[in-house]
Amino acid sequence: MENIENNDYKLSFFKPTTKKALKNRNMALWLIIIWATAVFGFQFLLRIMQEPVPEEAYNNYELVWENVKNENATDEEMSIFANSVLQVLGKVYVKPEYQEALSNAFTWSLFKIAGEDKDELLNNVLSFEKLYEESESIFDEEYIAAKTKLENCVADLLEIPQTDPRRVAIPFSVNSEKIDNYTEENKVITAKVMPMYLIHNRSVLTDTKFLGFPFHYFYTAVFLLTLFIGLCWIYCFITDRRELKEKASN
């Protein structure tokens, strides 16, 4: 009993005191290195290989922005600008302050090219806004009808096809209070936001498809998870095998 009480049972992962503990430490370190290399090495590789690639909407925006900003753009240029801005407004998430500025840009440019359809467009906007505030359900028939009418009206003006997913964002991108004036503040925000949402870092790792997924998505969402589970299994398998060998030798 006295010998047991005098023994030091402190364990250290970094300073193993037995051969078995040393082997276990080394194996754990190797598995950690493999995992860290797979996770962080791929991110560094993405950074090294990536190049900024603009969407077509951004290239179109750049062609007309100076004239739009100086308010001397043609109707065709305004239409190109409105289509490019709608491309951003149709993204899954846009910061509220950016959305407000882009809504101003979209609404203002839209009414600039509306011509004889301006009154009809305004009536459709006001009708939708009224029902948007009053309707208690998005399944209200009047609300749906007003939404569809505004969507079709704008889509016809901008020549947006029926299958274009941006159509969904149209009714929520027009604001009757932002028709007449495209503020200087919102122009500055627009110039800042457009490249943020329309220029993406891409490489062969992001453009290559694997099992139906972009390769970088498959690698991070599927492969790394599988790798982690696999490394845990390897650790358990090797540990069990060592235990069996020790028992057999004893």
Defining key terms:
250 residues; 10 helices; mainly alpha; two-stranded antiparallel sheet; single chain; two-stranded antiparallel ribbon; 2 domains; 4 strands; 5% strand
For the termini, the CA-CA separation is 25 Å
Strand/helix succession: HHEHHHHHHEHEEH
Number of helices: 10
Specify the structural class.
mainly alpha
Q: How many separate structural domains? A: 2
Give the fraction of residues assigned to helices: 55-70%
User: Low-confidence stretches at least 5 residues in length (pLDDT < 50)?
Assistant: none
General description of the model:
This protein has helices at residues 2-6, 19-49, 56-69, 75-89, 96-114, 118-134, 141-158, 184-198, 204-207, 215-249; strands at residues 51-54, 199-202, 209-210, 213-214. With 250 residues, the chain is mainly alpha-helical. It folds into two domains: 21-50 and 203-234; 55-201, no CATH class. Helix 3 crosses helix 4, helix 4 runs antiparallel to helix 5 and helix 5 crosses helix 8.
Strand and helix map with partners:
Elements: H1 2-6, H2 19-49, E1 51-54, H3 56-69, H4 75-89, H5 96-114, H6 118-134, H7 141-158, H8 184-198, E2 199-202, H9 204-207, E3 209-210, E4 213-214, H10 215-249
Antiparallel strand pairs: 1-2, 3-4
Helix pairs in contact: 2-10, 3-4, 3-8, 4-5, 5-8, 6-7
